[in-house]
Amino acid sequence: MTRRPRQSAWGLWNISFGFFGIQIGFALQNANMSRIFQTLSPDDPDILSKLPALWVAAPLTGLLVQPIIGHLSDRTWLGALGRRRPYFLTGAVLAALSLFVMPLAPALLFAAFMLWVLDASLNISMEPFRAFVGDMLPREQHATGYAVQTAFIGAGAVVGSIFPKALEWAGVANTAAAGAIPDTVRYAFWFGGAALLLAVLWTVVTTREYSPTEMAAFEGDHAADTHDTIRLLAARTFGSSIAWIIGGAVVLAVVYRFALQQEMYLLGGLLIAYGLASIVAIRLARAGRGASMLGHIVGDFSGMPM
Q1: What phi and psi, each to the nearest 5 degrees, are found at residue 256?
Q2: 240 vs 302: CA distance, rounded Å
Q3: Which position has the higher pLDDT, 264 or 25?
């Protein structure tokens, strides 16, 4: 089995620098979206109680988008762009456009919709970055590669979070008329969108992915690992699937009985949906058709250490 070449310090930087821009986008979203929602609803006395429902977009899109993009990017090869970089670029362009448009939102519902688009776009770009380290580095450099990536995550989060305050210190207005988004927030989103796109472009331009032939030589037993995942899925009983469904039903009943936050209905629904999906995936695996997106996602999830 061929070994991956070791990467220099600059190679490690180039592989993960795009994550710096992605985290700027996440930080701007996390620090400012509640303020934008409140700004666009100046006459709604109940807006604070509605914020959790508006924020459902963030966890839900991550839960849905990440496994799908992870599965697709494992099976993509787009010529010169390669395997992961098409997703880096697509997600970054969509996220940058979302950041440019968000501060121009004319109404609350439009801003809520743009939050879904922004979060999905950031996840499209982010998920393949995690796998990119494993693709590009030999096993003995994985810890270093993920450490560099983590450093960029922290740096991007700090930069994105202080953007509006830094602009206020620079003399940009931090207040606006009722219903209008302040200049500090608008400019922060615009600068952040540009920084995100440039950072991801840096990684896209300065890295070259290994071809499918090279990856096959590096991985060796990857196909066997995939086969084992499907084999183990086919050997599972429906007991755990039924348990997920029952657990979801219990959550729904408790939320209804005790009038808890309505967002908790989402948790119950997701548990039931996963239970049903795992039943379908097990049946497909037993029928010899487990090598599908659903089969791989359920198989990988069920194989995670608890």
Answers
A1: -70, -45
A2: 10
A3: 25
